[in-house]
Amino acid sequence: MLARALGKSEVDAPEVAESEVDATAEGETSEPEPIDPATQRCGFVAIVGKPNVGKSTLLNALVGQKVSITSRKAQTTRHRITGMRTLGPTQFVFVDTPGFQTRHGNALNRALNKTVLGAVSDVDLILFVVEAGHFNLADAKVLDLLPANVPVMLVANKFDLVHRRGDLAPWLRSMQERHPFAEFVPMSAKHPKDIQRLFAICEKYLPLQPWMHDPDDLTDRSERFMASEMVREKLFRLTGDELPYTSTVVIDKFEEEGALKRIAATIVVEREGHKGMVIGDKGEKLKRIGTEARQELEKLWDCKVYLELWVKVRSGWADDDARVRSFGYE
Length: 330
What we know:
Number of domains: 2
CATH class of the largest domain: Alpha Beta
CATH superfamily of the largest domain: P-loop containing nucleotide triphosphate hydrolases
Strand order of the largest sheet: 3-4-2-5-6-7
Largest sheet: 6 strands, mixed
Distance between the termini: 21 Å
CATH topology of the largest domain: Rossmann fold
Radius of gyration: 22 Å
Oligomer: single chain
Shape: globular
Number of strands: 11
Low-confidence stretches: 1-29, 71-79, 322-330
Mean pLDDT: 78
Strand content: 15-25%
C-alpha cells in the first residue's frame, strides 16, 4: 500500500514546550477525534469516459497525490487503478479505468475494455466524465455500457475552457435526454474548490458501512506497478505521437537496499524503428526518460532510486492474447 507521506512541517516540528506537555496531560490533545464506526461511510466510485477527457487527472486530484499517470496520448491508462481518500467519517474508493476503445479490436484493447466493464459492474456511483459542451460517438458508446441500476453523475470536466457558458444550457438538455443522470457537475479537475464540491456531492451516494482501508492509504497498487507506470508516462510524454500507444514497460528487477530502491525495467516496442525513437540520438531520449521517471519516483517515495532502462522489440505483442496477459493486462 502507498501511504500518504509526511509533510515537511510534520517532520521538522519543534520540540514541545512544558506548558504544552501539561496541557496534553490535562486532556487537551491535537489528535483527531476518533470516528464513530456507526457513522462511517465507504463505497466505490468508478471514473469512466472515453480516452483523454481527464479521468486520471481527476483521480489524482481526488486522492491528493499522483497514483495514475497522465499524458496527451490516448489510452495512457491501461489498468484499473484504485485510489482512496478518507475525509471525516467517509472513505471514498475511486476506480480509474482505461478509456473505452472502439477503433481497434486487438488483444490489448479487448483486455482494456474488459477492465472497464468489470469496474462499473459493482460500484456505488459512476462518474461519467466528458468535456463540457462536447459529446460524440465515442462518449455515447461508453454511456451505453453503463448499468441501469447504478446512479451516474455527469461530470462536465474542463468547464474553465468554456468561453460562452450560455451555450451549455441546450447541451445539458440534450445530455439529460440521453440518460437519467443523478447529478450534473460542471467543474475543472485542476481547481481544488471544484474537487471539494465533488466530494460533498458524492458522499451521499456511499453506504453507511465500515471503512475498507487504512485512512492513510492512497492506492492498492504496489510500488513495482507504480514504477512501471511512471516509466510509461515519461515514455509517452517524451515521444509524443511518434510512438504507437502499444508500447509498454515491464519491470525486470525491483530490490530494496535500506533507503535505496534498485529497479531494472524494459521498454517493449513493436518495431525496430520504434526502438530508435525511444533511444534517441546517442541515447539521449532514453536517458531523459529514465531521469524524469527516477526523479518522480524519488519524490513519490521519498527515497533514492537507481533506475536502469532497456529497450526490446516484440513484434505483434498487442495482438497476442498470451503475451498481453504476460505483460500484466487481464
